[in-house]
Amino acid sequence: MSEASLRHEIEQLLHLEADYADDWQLPEWLGLWAEGEILYEIGPLDTPRGDRLSHDQALYLLSDDRFRLEQRIIRMGKPTAHAESPVRSRTRHLYTHLRNIAAEGGIITCKVNMLVTRTRRDTEGVAILPGYVLFTLARQNGALKIQRKRIFLDLWVLSNPGTMAIIL
Amino acid sequence: MSNIAPHQSRFLQYDPQNHIFRVHRDAYASPAVFAEEKQKILYKSWIILGHETEIANPGDFVTRRVIDRELIFNRDSAGNVNVFFNSCMHRGPAVCKQKEGKANIFVCPYHGWVYKNDGYLASTGSTKADAGYPAAYLARGEGAVRLQRVQNVAQRAGFYFVNFDDAAIPLDDYLQGAGARLDRMALQTTAGFEMIAGVHEYDINANYKLLCENSYDGYHLMQTHATYLDYVKEILKGSNLDPKLGGIVMTLGNGHGAFEIPVLSGRPVAQWLPHWGEEARLLLEEKRNEVIARLGAELGANVCDMNSNMVIFPNSVINDQQTILARTIIPLAHNRMRVRAWTVAPRDEHPKLRAIRMENILSFLGPGGFATPDDVSMLEWAQTGYETTNVMWNDFSKGMTPHETPLNATAIYDDEMQMRAYWLQWDKLMSARPPS
After folding, report:
1. Do the beta carbons of residue A115 and residue A128 sit within 8 Å?
2. Which of A46, A57, A156, A163 to mutate to test the interface with B (most CBs of B within 10 A)?
């Protein structure tokens, strides 16, 4: 596969993933993940060592294996998940500067910049969550699936709102 | 301490005979009250600053805000612990802009004044500049210039506290029963603790006292955290573990309080959950045996089997559950706070148990956990209720009895006695008349 077509395929996946997240299509979003072991993480905010420390060495914002990610999605869908109920945040995921694409043995890694905007009915203004994402993708049954999504935000403090109750 | 007589004040309706305990919402929602409580309470109380492991070696420093004061917390080259106000004695800029590190000197970026890490002025930029000042400035004797120190700095069980009131009572006297609770946490290991990298820092649009109340409120769990309890059921599926809500709340003197409740979702010292696997089970059994051999059956089981959240009046929260987690609360305004949550763990912890600790923290605590976001929503909605309606009073009467002495007492876990003790202390300090 040429680099251009691989890049195109990754972009299609990222666009779909962003749309599912923004539309709160939670089961569909979860369906984009690979079978087997997975990892969904948001790294620590305050340490300049950033992605060089793993989640068992530093206090991540979140670090989900398959069980916890599935439970997170179940939780987010409930009316008693108060932070996003009854009115959910409106979000917009923007991915850009897709780079460092590497493919080896059916596993593809890449880095992409991310900007997520989030508005809440009960809060004035628009929260902007900037950062980058390290993706690990796996080709399973011919389709690209997400194996790892590690997010590192350019924030020192989580503010307005101070919680992470949406899909990032 | 004697009983507090029934009374009505600006902020409190306290009438045990008639089962009435109400707090006026101005205590949360008035900018003027916030300004007043800074002077009467926040600047006169012992407030948590950090942990001894952050400044383990000579030269180690961190910079940090406590209430609204910017501080440098360091260990100088002679090994002494200092807390300096982070402002050059010349014209004011911070002499340290980094969050943490190791330094023999601090240099002001404005005119280049140089301070040794014990705070004494070493140079005003050059020999020529030095000649323009009194010789005493640099002589380390009378008249020496030194970064201004917070006079009252003390530690208990490795937790460092500051008090901006130079006339403050000693920390141990202030802590009363809370001190013994800190000592109890230290019993988890004989190897000492280490600070885990990374901090959860997040803002909440609510008065800081709302987070204090929430932190040791055993009564909101069923309602606010229904989804988390569903998750716990899921992780316990197929095991014979059937944790029950229960335990006690306690008051610890001077407005401090805690709850102590059975572990719901495992902990690395030392309760196992089935989905952690067989290796973890053996490691936790070993850890538990070590603790019980060292402390005896009763105290050992208490250390291993009970979660305890504590509020040290007025704004320091130390939770002993999935990990030892300190929440330093910075009140930014009457209706806004910044939470700085950090955690320490036994230095000799097995890597497998450390991994379990980290995962367990993230499933419950923190802004991305399965519980904290819901707490934050409740606090913000409560604050909104105070600011957008004419309802005046909050109710804290649950479990109150006519002869209750909410000082150094215990009650069932879903009582509100610990909060009554907090508010009685708060009201006492707010009602004090300044000396004329």
Report:
1. yes
2. A163
Nearest CA in chain A to B196: A58
Residue B20 lies in a domain: no
Q: Do B196 and A59 touch (CB under 8 A)?
A: yes
Using CA coordinates, name the residue in chain B closest to A167: B368
Residues A115-145: pLDDT tens digits? 999 998 877 889 999 999 999 999 999 999 9
Does residue A72 sit within a domain? yes
Q: What is the DSSP string of chain A?
A: --HHHHHHHHHHHHHHHHHHHHTT-HHHHHTTBPSS--EEEE--SS-TTGGGS-TTTB--SEEE-HHHHHHHHHHHTSTT-GGG-SSPPEEEEEEEEEEEEEEETTEEEEEEEEEEEEEETTEEEEEEEEEEEEEEEEEETTEEEEEEEEEEES-SSB-SS----S--
- Tell me the nearest-neighbour CA distance from B332 into chain A, angstroms: 13
Give the residue numbers in A contacting B (CB under 8 Å), as ranges.
42, 44-47, 49, 53, 55-63, 65, 67-68, 71-72, 74-75, 78, 80-84, 122-123, 156-165
All residues of chain A having their beta carbon less than 8 Å from the beta carbon of residue B231 are 71, 75
ipTM computed for the complex: 0.94
- Model confidence at B273, pLDDT cuts 50, 70, 90, reads confident
- State the nearest Cα–Cα gap between A41 and chain B, in angstroms: 10
Cα B255 versus chain centre, distance: 14
Looking at B118, B152, B186, the residue that finishes a domain is: B152
Q: Which domain holds residue A99?
A: 3-153
pLDDT digit string, tens, across residues B299-325: 999 999 999 999 999 999 999 988 999
The boundaries of the domain holding residue B97 are 55-152
Q: Do B153 and B166 touch, CB atoms closer than 8 A? A: no
Q: B201 and B340: one domain?
A: yes
Q: Which residues of B touch A166 (CB under 8 A)?
A: none
Does any domain span residue B296? yes
* For residues B57-85, average pLDDT: 98
Q: Which of B362, B376, B388 to mutate against chain A (most A CBs within 10 Å)?
A: B362
Q: Which of B232-236, B260-264, B293-297 has the highest mean pLDDT?
A: B293-297
Are the beta carbons of B351 and A62 separated by less than 8 Å? no
Same domain, B131 and B205: no
Query: Tell me, what CATH number does B354's domain have?
Result: 3.90.380.10
Amino acid A49: pLDDT: 57
Among B29, B116, B17, which residue's Cα sits nearest to residue B394?
A: B29
pLDDT tens column, A18-74: 999 999 999 999 999 999 999 999 999 876 656 778 888 888 999 999 999 999 999
Domain shared by B238 and B199, yes or no: yes
Helix (H, G, I), strand (E, B) or coil at B76: coil
Q: Are residues B131 and B181 in the same domain?
A: no
In a domain? residue B252: yes
